[in-house]
UniProtKB/TrEMBL annotation:
Its EC number is 4.2.1.59. This is 3-hydroxyacyl-[acyl-carrier-protein] dehydratase FabZ. GO terms for molecular function: (3R)-hydroxyacyl-[acyl-carrier-protein] dehydratase activity. InterPro entries: FabA_FabZ, FabZ, HotDog_dom_sf. GO terms for biological process: fatty acid biosynthetic process; lipid A biosynthetic process. Its main location: cytoplasm. The gene is fabZ. It catalyses: a (3R)-hydroxyacyl-[ACP] = a (2E)-enoyl-[ACP] + H2O. Coiled coil: none annotated. It is an enzyme of class 4 (lyase).
Length: 141
């Protein structure tokens, strides 16, 4: 299943400037999602991070992965209309910087869902190279 930005907005509550995924290329509700983020030079964050050396902050990469996982989780009928919050971030590793002009591919596989808690593994890549990997815990409220 694929989702455009309008369909993503029906699942997660994020809006500009905090909506950090542009489309979902593959979605298996409750199991996994693959999303895409096109990083542009016009984003406000690059005015200060860093002048003359624009680098997307790692925290925004992890947030984009979390939003991808939230789409997979909140697309389940029992969680429709809910919000997924961070319950934890473990083992975050950064391997490459992300710059304007890059397209991040964001993959999240949900490993366990119990009651209102979900656990998943996320991987962000640019041009097939690993950018970030992380273990995420989601709390559904």
């Amino acid at each position: 299943m694929k989702l455009d930005i309008t369909e993503i907005k029906k699942i997660i509550p994020h809006r500009y400037p905090m909506l950090l995924i542009d489309r979902v290329d593959d979605l298996v509700p409750g199991e996994s999602a693959v999303a895409r983020r096109n990083v542009t030079a016009h984003e406000e964050v690059f005015n200060g991070h860093f002048p003359n050396n624009p680098v997307l902050p790692g925290v925004l990469i992890i947030e984009a992965l979390a939003q991808t996982g939230a789409v997979a989780l909140l697309s389940l009928p029992e969680f429709k209309g809910k919000t997924a919050y961070f319950g934890g971030i473990k083992n975050a590793k950064f391997r490459k910087v992300v710059r304007p002009g890059d397209t991040m591919i964001l993959k999240v596989e949900l490993e366990k869902i119990r009651n209102n808690v979900g656990l998943g593994r996320g991987l962000a890549t640019v041009d097939g190279q690993k950018v970030c990997s992380v273990e995420l815990t989601f709390m559904i409220g």
